[in-house]
Design a protein that fits this description.
Layout lengths: L5 E9 L4 H18 L3 E9 L2 E11 L2 H7 L3 H10 L3 E10 L4
Antiparallel strand pairs: 1-3, 1-4, 2-3
Helix pairs in contact: 1-3
């Protein structure tokens, strides 16, 4: 596997009554991304210790093009459509590897 050179950090604030559904669905999304996408090297799901409605994703890709592919996959499109109503807010950071 190639070393990842591009990462995404996403913070979701989930509606309180949707937390369990979101967690289940995002864990499946993480699994699908790593298993089905050769360019996805890592996809971690974290929850804030002090606020269970805050979910943080760290995703690492071989390059930015692999992330672009990720956003067109059927599993991503299905995930995005399903969880959008459960999300209060979302912020995304795109990160490039510095050095080796």
């Amino acid at each position: 596997m190639s070393q990842p050179t591009f990462a995404i950090a996403v913070t979701f604030h989930i509606k309180t009554d949707c937390i369990d559904s979101f967690r289940t669905r995002v864990v499946q999304q993480a699994r699908d991304s790593v298993e089905l996408e050769p360019g996805c090297c890592q996809f971690d799901v974290h929850v804030d210790e002090s606020d269970p409605a805050v979910i943080f994703l760290y995703e690492a890709y071989v390059d930015a093009a692999a992330f672009d592919v990720h956003r067109t996959t059927p599993h991503f499109l299905d995930f995005n459509q399903q969880v959008t109503p459960w999300v209060e807010s979302k912020s995304l950071m795109s990160l490039n590897l510095v050095g080796n």
